Amino acid sequence: MIAVIVSGYDGDGSEALCEIREVGGTTIAQRLDTAKEPDMPESAIASGCIDFIMSPEDIGRRIVEIMNMGSSGPDAPP
């Protein structure tokens, strides 16, 4: 499970981020200096429940890395 918070208004969703992280999910927020509207990523970062703070380009690469790790884990089919 991966949650990504990018540019946008308001701070709704921070509680859900913490819940996702608590069950082993990965949480990612957009770097504030790359967000047109930083309210949402700023609120997410302030929640303390963010694993990575990245530019949009790096977010995409990190998701691919996470997906590749999951597909080659010990429970993955041969």
Structural summary, described in words:
- This protein has 78 residues and is of the alpha/beta class.
- It has a single domain (2-71), classed as Rossmann fold (3-Layer(aba) Sandwich).
- It contains three helices and three strands, in the order βαβαβα.
- The chain has a three-stranded parallel β-sheet with strand order 1-2-3, sandwiched between helices.
- Strand 2, helix 2 (39-46) and strand 3 form a beta-alpha-beta unit.
- Residues 73-78 have low confidence and may be disordered.
Name given to the CATH architecture = 3-Layer(aba) Sandwich
* Number of H/I helices: 3
Counting structural domains, the number is: 1
Tell me the strand percentage band: 15-25%
Strand order of the largest sheet: 1-2-3
The radius of gyration is: 13 Å
Low-confidence stretches: 73-78
Structural class: alpha/beta
* SSE order: EHEHEH
Portion of residues within helices: 40-55%
**Major β-sheet profile:** 3 strands, parallel
Say how many strands there are: 3
Q: Give the CATH topology.
A: Rossmann fold
Give the terminus-to-terminus CA distance.
22 Å
Under CATH at level 1, the class stands as Alpha Beta
Q: What is the overall shape? A: flat
